[in-house]
Amino acid sequence: MTETTPTAEQFWEDFYRERDQIWTGNANATLVREAADLTPGTALDLGCGEGGDAIWLATRGWQVTAVDVSATAMARGAQHAADAGVSIEWQRHDLMETFPEGTFDLVSAQFLHSPVERPDERARILRRAAEAVAPGGSLIVGGHAGWPTWAADNPPHAVHFPTIDEVIEQLDLAPGRWQVETADFVTTPSTSPDGVAGERSDSVVRVRRLA
């Protein structure tokens, strides 16, 4: 019998249903680092998961649209937002098929990595994310730059982590219409499931659409 690859919705629904909570609820460090000093406006959070980033933005005064393919994840995010006393618009999208309408002062795409990623999927989504940035607005892309140190010698599976240059190339930015403001690596502590301490290196790219 031939095994079929699950759809993005099937995979992430199963992923989130495995446990009552997957993530810590804290905002991603790459987003906090790059967005903390931005003037709040409208924000789009792509791949919002259980809502940590979206809630952090909303508590800082952003009007947030949060998007994920998993209804289970977004339901948890909506409950967390209610508990935090903030209002967020939640939209379910498979970003290869549909995308939120409009433009935004901030578009955030944090760790859009997927074991069931289709060919050119991440690049296509990032290009669409750039199109959704309003004049004068920013796009922040955070991603893993490699396996944590405790997994580097024996990675669980083969995967290509895009370099910073590859991320910028995937964005396909029109010359003269964008400014690259950040292209950097962020190293944070990371502990394996069995308690081995190490660190993880992530890439962060912030670009601004010129008015």
UniProtKB/TrEMBL annotation:
BP GO terms, sorted: methylation
Domain of life: Bacteria
Domain Methyltransferase: 44-137
A GO MF term: methyltransferase activity
UniProt xrefs under InterPro entries: Methyltransf_25 (IPR041698), SAM-dependent_MTases_sf (IPR029063)
Assigned keywords, A-Z: Methyltransferase, S-adenosyl-L-methionine, Transferase
Gene3D superfamilies in the record: Vaccinia Virus protein VP39
Record's protein name: Class I SAM-dependent methyltransferase
The organism of origin for this protein: Nocardia coubleae
Source organism phylogeny: Bacteria, Bacillati, Actinomycetota, Actinomycetes, Mycobacteriales
